[in-house]
Specification:
Helix content: 40-55%
Oligomer: single chain
Radius of gyration: 29 Å
Main location: membrane
Bound molecules: 2-acetamido-2-deoxy-beta-D-glucopyranose
GO cellular component, one term: membrane
Distance between the termini: 64 Å
Order of helices and strands: HEEHEEHEEEEEEHHHHHHHHHHHHH
Subcellular location: Membrane
Membrane topology: Multi-pass membrane protein
Shape: elongated
Number of domains: 2
Structural class: alpha+beta
Organism: Galleria mellonella
Number of helices: 16
Length: about 575
C-alpha cells in the first residue's frame, strides 16, 4: 500500500495528465466540484459539499484518481451530478433542491456573510463562483449556474460561469438549484486556454524590470564595494605581513598584533552545535537545488496550468535530491571532526520534513477545532511518512556515506591551535548579534518587490506565472547575500572574533527575518483575513516559507564566505 503511493507519485510526474482533453460529440463532460472557502484567503478551503449543497441526478461516474499533491493542497474533487455532454446545449432546468433546516441555514448564512467562493473544474479549467450576497441584513444565495463553454475542434478552450437568480435564505426555505449549458465555437487555441487566468495587468512587466534593475544596481554597487574594500585591505595586510625586510622588528610586531591574521589558529575551529549546523547547511544545499530546479522546470513546463503538478514536482525533486543533503551535511560534519554521524544524518534527513509536517499538523489541528472542517486525509499522511522513511532516508544515507568518505578529511590551510584564543573586547556594532541583524537588510531590499507578487498569488486569486523574473530575482538575491556576508565576516574577523561560521550563516539567513516582518505588514495592509484560524494559517505557513528562505540564504552565504575565508588564509604564510 505504502509503496503503491510512492509509485503513484512517480507515475503522476511522468504522466501528469490523465485526460487527453479530446472529446467526441455527445461525450460526457464532467463538472467536478472542488472546494469552497472565504474569498480573502484562497488557501483556506473546505470540501464543496461541506456546505449543504445538493448533488445532481446523474449517477456518479467512474473512479477519480486523486494525486498526493492534490490531497495535500486540499483538492477534493467530487462529481457534481450535472449532466453535461460535449456540444449539447442544456436549457435551464432544475437539478436538485435543498430544504433548509436550522443547521444548514446557519451554515449557508455563515458562508454568504464571509464571502465564500466555490471552485469547480471542467476539463481541468478552474471555474470560480460566489455562493451568495448580503443585502442589508438579508442573505441571498445564487441558485442558477449558467455555463458558457467555448470549444475549438474537439477540445474545450473556455468556460464562463454566470451566477443568476438569487433566493433569500430563510430558516425553512426550499431552494431549487438550476443550471444551463451553452456551447459556443471559440477561436482560442487549446495551448492558450490558460491565458485568461493570468493577469498581466497585475504582474506588470514594467514593475518587475524596475525591481530587477534596482536590485541589479545594488549588486553592482555591492560587488564593487566588496572588491574595493577587500582589495585595498588585503593588499595592505599582505604588504604589511610580507615586507619583513623593510620593517624593523618592533613595527612588525605591532603590525602583527591586530587584524584577521591573528585568529588563523582559530578560524577553522569546529563550530559549536556541530550536528545542527551541518544539518542546516546540508538542508540548505538541497533546498537551493530544489528551488532552482522547480523554477526552471516551471519556466519550461508551464506547470502552473496543471492542477497540483507544481507541488508534485517539488516533492519529487526534493526526495530525489536527498543525497545532496547527505553529502554536504555529512562531509561538513566529518571535516569538523563530528563523531555521531548517524545522529547528524537523521537530523539532516528529517529536519525539513518534520518542520513542514509539524506546522501542517498544528494548523490542521486548529482547523479541526475551530471549524468542523476536513483534515488532511490519513492516506496522504501515510504517503508523506513513507516517502520520508523509504525514499528520503535511504538516499540521505547514501549521500552521507559518500560525503564522509570522499570529502570528509579536514584540509584546512591553517593548523588549529590547541587552546582557543580569547575574543577581545570590541565595539558594540562588531558583536555577532548586531552583524547578524544588519546582514539581512540589503538582501531583503533586493527581493521585497517580488515578495509582494509571490505573496499575492499565494493568498489571493492570482496565478503566478512570471517565473523567469523569479529566477532572476533568486539569482540576484544569492549574489547580494554572498557579498554582504563576506563583508560582514571580514569585519568580524578583523575584530579578531573567529566565530564566523554561525555568524555568516545567520547574517545571511536573517533576510528571512525581514521577510517574515514584511509578511506582518502584508497581513495588516494587503489582506482582509480575520479570525484565529486564518491568522494561524497565514502566519504558520509564512513562518515555514521564511524559514526555508532563511536556510537557503544562510547556506549560500556560508558557502561564499567559507570560500573567501579559505582563500585569504591560504595565501598568508604562517610561521
Ligand atoms: C466568456 O466571457 C468573455 C468575456 O466576457 C467573452 O469574451 C467570451 O466570449 C465568453 N465565452 C463564451 C464561451 O461565452
Amino acid at each position: 500500500m505504502k509503496f503503491l503511493y510512492i509509485i503513484f507519485i512517480f507515475w503522476t510526474i511522468v504522466n501528469c495528465d490523465e485526460h487527453t482533453h479530446i472529446y467526441k460529440d455527445g461525450e460526457q463532460v464532467v463538472l467536478w466540484m472542488n472546494t469552497v472557502g472565504p474569498y480573502h484567503n484562497r488557501q483556506e478551503t473546505y470540501a464543496y459539499f461541506s456546505l449543504p449543497f445538493c448533488i445532481g441526478t446523474k449517477v456518479t461516474i467512474g473512479h477519480y484518481h486523486e494525486t498526493l499533491s492534490e490531497a495535500l493542497q486540499g483538492v477534493e474533487l467530487e462529481f457534481s451530478g450535472l449532466d453535461i455532454t460535449f456540444k449539447d446545449n442544456v436549457p435551464a432546468q432544475q437539478f436538485c433542491a435543498i430544504e433548509l433546516n436550522e443547521q444548514s441555514y446557519k451554515a449557508l448564512v455563515y458562508a454568504v456573510k464571509n464571502h465564500y467562493w466555490y471552485q469547480m473544474y471542467i476539463d481541468d479549467l478552474p471555474i470560480w463562483g460566489i455562493v451568495g450576497e448580503v443585502d442589508g441584513d438579508q442573505y441571498y444565495i445564487w441558485t442558477h449556474k449558467k455555463f458558457d463553454i467555448g470549444y475549438n475542434g474537439k477540445r474545450i478552450v473556455e468556460v464562463n460561469l454566470t451566477a443568476e437568480n438569487k433566493e433569500r435564505l430563510t430558516p425553512d426555505a426550499k431552494i431549487p438549484f438550476t443550471y444551463e449549458v451553452n456551447w459556443k465555437k471559440s477561436n482560442i487555441n487549446f495551448e492558450d486556454r490558460f491565458d485568461k487566468y493570468l493577469d498581466p495587468n497585475f504582474f506588470q512587466h514594467r514593475i518587475h524590470w524596475f525591481s530587477i534593475f534596482n536590485s541589479f544596481m545594488m549588486v553592482i554597487f555591492l560587488v564593487g564595494l566588496v572588491s574595493m574594500i577587500l582589495m585595498r585591505t588585503l593588499r595592505k595586510d599582505y604588504a604589511r605581513y610580507s615586507k619583513d625586510d623593510d620593517l624593523d622588528d618592533l613595527e612588525k610586531d605591532l603590525g602583527d598584533e591586530y587584524g584577521w591574521k591573528q585568529v588563523h589558529g582559530d578560524v577553522f575551529r569546529p563550530v559549536p552545535h556541530l550536528a545542527c549546523f551541518s544539518a542546516l547547511v546540508g538542508a540548505g544545499y538541497q533546498l537551493t537545488v530544489v528551488t532552482l530546479a522547480v523554477i526552471i522546470f516551471t519556466i519550461f513546463g508551464e506547470l502552473y496550468t496543471e492542477r497540483g503538478s507544481l507541488l508534485s514536482t517539488a516533492i519529487f525533486i526534493y526526495a530525489a535530491t536527498s543525497p545532496i543533503n547527505g553529502y554536504f551535511g555529512g562531509s561538513l560534519y566529518a571535516r569538523m571532526g563530528g563523531k555521531l554521524w548517524i545522529k547528524q544524518m537523521l537530523l539532516s534527513a528529517f529536519l525539513l520534513p518534520v518542520l513542514v509536517c509539524g506546522t501542517a499538523f498544528f494548523i490542521n489541528f486548529i482547523a479541526m477545532y475551530y471549524h468542523a472542517s476536513r483534515a488532511i486525509p490519513f492516506g496522504s499522511m501515510i504517503a508523506v511518512m513513507s516517502i520520508c522513511t523509504f525514499v528520503i532516508l535511504p538516499l540521505t544515507l547514501v549521500g552521507t556515506v559518500l560525503g564522509r568518505n570522499l570529502a570528509g578529511q579536514p584540509d584546512y590551510p591553517c593548523r588549529i591551535n590547541a587552546v582557543p584564543r580569547p575574543i577581545p573586547e570590541k565595539k558594540w556594532f562588531m558583536e555577532p548579534f548586531i552583524i547578524i541583524i544588519m546582514g539581512g537588510i540589503l538582501p531583503f531590499g533586493s527581493i521585497f518587490i517580488e515578495m509582494y507578487f509571490i505573496f499575492t498569488s499565494f493568498w489571493a486569486y492570482k496565478i503566478y506565472y512570471v517565473y523567469g523574473f523569479m529566477l532572476l530575482v533568486f539569482l540576484i538575491l544569492m549574489i547580494v547575500t554572498v557579498c554582504v556576508t563576506i563583508v560582514c565576516t571580514y569585519f568580524l574577523l578583523n575584530a579578531e572574533d573567529y566565530r564566523w561560521q554561525w555568524t555568516s550563516f545567520l547574517s545571511a539567513g536573517s533576510t528571512a527575518l525581514y521577510v517574515y516582518l514584511y509578511s506582518f505588514y502584508y497581513f495588516i495592509f494587503k489582506t482582509k483575513m480575520y479570525g484565529l484560524f486564518q491568522t494561524t494559517f497565514y502566519f504558520g505557513y509564512m513562518a515555514l516559507f521564511s524559514l526555508a528562505l532563511g536556510i537557503i540564504c544562510g547556506t549560500v552565504g556560508y558557502l561564499g564566505t567559507s570560500i573567501f575565508v579559505r582563500k585569504i588564509y591560504s595565501t598568508v604564510k604562517i610561521d
